[in-house]
Here is the input.
Amino acid sequence: MKKIFTFLLLSAMIGTSQLAEAGSGDQTSPNARATQMVKQLAKKIQLSEGQYVKVRQLNLRLLNDVQAVKTQSAGDAAAIDQQLAELQSHYEWDLTAILGPRQMVAYNQSKADMMAMSVGK
Here is the structure.
């Protein structure tokens, strides 16, 4: 459940920052959101150009998968939670394959900081 909460929190924080920065309606497209997500991550950790492209593709796949889960399991909250947890697990596994050890430490620290901020509110 903690993983699900973390995943949803990260998604919500990214979505909130996107809405604040959105100048046009196109900012809500999966491509624009994937780009915004990778930009947010790049602010926290150093990404090479190759990593930037791979993480953006990974984010786009995640966004599409999340939308598919929400559409397919619309009435079943437990199924959505389980599938989102699986998606998060796969996302982090794939992210680990892209990022280096120091980058993963920075990513995990960023995630922990976001959790601490949300609990403190």
Notes: The two ends are 19 Å apart (CA to CA). Residues 49-72 form the longest helix (24 residues). The chain has five helices and no strands.
